[in-house]
Design a protein that fits this description.
This protein is an alpha/beta fold. It contains seven helices and 14 strands. It is about 20% helix and about 30% strand. A seven-stranded mixed beta sheet has the order 6-5-4-3-2-1-14. Strands 7-8-9-10-11-12-13 form a seven-stranded mixed beta sheet.
Length: about 250
């Protein structure tokens, strides 16, 4: 086992079906990190007896509330309850500024400069590769928001890899992102609804399924429209508490 993935949140922005908002807890033999951190993330970590000081960094796909709105609460917990020297957040250009603004809005006068630990940001450009203790992360531009970069990520370690789209409308970058992965986690907000440049539908996925080069597909971020047609969906669907081993 190279990657252990725990689904902390598999829901959409509206938490349809009572699902938590997006977050994945990723564990390797070297590092532990979160892939996105929606507002429900800290409470789910508490329920699963996972202390936030065991998390080495957060990898954020894009700056929408259901994907990064939980970061200030996690940082608050780290600052109050634990002793750490620094904390790393990786995301698109602008993540440091946006998070600082969000922190100040939620807790005025309690910004990063008041923390007992140092905040470190790694701001990525499209197609940029970085290594975090031998874990290779590459960003792929997705098609979701005109207001900031939205990234999918391919994550490789040792001889295994997985990828996650974040939120996106259909784009050929999805095909590139999936290439030669052991697991491909793809958002599938709708079943047959045409929300181009915003979210993927299951119909679009099926139309392009032969172009996806991965061993396993896992759907996430389903909305009411997708759940209303769940009996027509044949691929695996993520659920809160699901564990995947690669």
């Amino acid at each position: 086992m190279i990657f252990e993935i725990l689904v902390l949140g598999s829901g959409d922005a509206c938490s349809f079906g009572g699902k938590n908002q997006t977050s994945f807890f990723i564990k390797t033999d070297k590092k532990t990190f979160l892939l996105d951190c929606g507002p429900s993330t800290l409470s789910e970590l508490r329920r699963r007896n996972i202390n936030t000081d065991k998390i080495d960094f957060i990898l954020n796909t894009h700056m929408h509330g259901d994907h990064y709105g939980g970061i200030p609460y996690l940082l608050l917990d780290l600052n109050i309850n634990y002793k750490i020297e620094s904390f790393l957040v990786i995301g698109a250009e602008g993540i440091a500024e946006r998070l600082n603004i969000l922190q100040d809005l939620l807790y005025p006068g309690y910004g990063f400069e008041k923390f007992k630990f140092k905040m470190i940001f790694e701001e990525l450009k499209p197609y940029q590769e970085i290594n975090v203790d031998d874990i290779k992360i590459k960003s792929y531009p997705m098609l979701h928001s005109a207001y900031s970069y939205c990234f999918g990520y391919k994550i490789e370690y040792k001889n295994k890899s997985f990828a996650y789209t974040g939120d996106t409308g259909w784009t050929n970058e999805i095909i590139n992102l999936s290439n030669n992965t052991d697991l491909f986690i793809i958002e599938c907000s709708y079943y047959n609804k045409d929300i181009r440049n915003s979210h993927v539908s299951y119909k679009e996925l099926l139309e392009n399924i032969n172009k996806i080069n991965t061993k396993n597909i896992l759907l996430t971020h389903l909305s009411k429209d997708a759940y209303d047609n769940i009996d027509k969906i044949s691929h695996a669907i993520a659920y809160d508490g699901m564990k995947i081993f690669i």
